[in-house]
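Thread: "does anyone have the structure for this chain?"

Original post by V.I.:
We have the sequence but no experimental structure in hand. Need at least a predicted one for the grant figures.
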Amino acid sequence: MVRYLTLVEDRLKRLDEWTVRHIPQIKNLKVDTLTRIAATLSIREVIMLPIYLQSTPSITPKLVCSATKVDPDWMHDIVKYLKLGELPEDKKHGTKSAYRPPVSP
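Reply from O.Q.:
Generated one for you, tokens below.
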């Protein structure tokens, strides 16, 4: 790194004017990929390393539907009665003899 810094400083002295601009990582993906490869591989000699760019991800995310079982709410028995004419069989909700569905003439 020191050698690189010395080389850059030497070349900058030869220029009359220079500017340093920050390029966001998103706009510089190729260079970012190359720096990651250079940082992770221990390459001691010059080699040709083919780089393939994928325009779409190789792993597609799976859609997940999170469903939870809930207890029937207070309207469940009423809706069931209105749709099917069935009364609840549970003792605390009353018995079939206590409730008589209306009879249409």
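V.I.: this helps a lot. Helices lie at 2-14, 29-40, 76-84.
O.Q.: and The radius of gyration is 37 Å.
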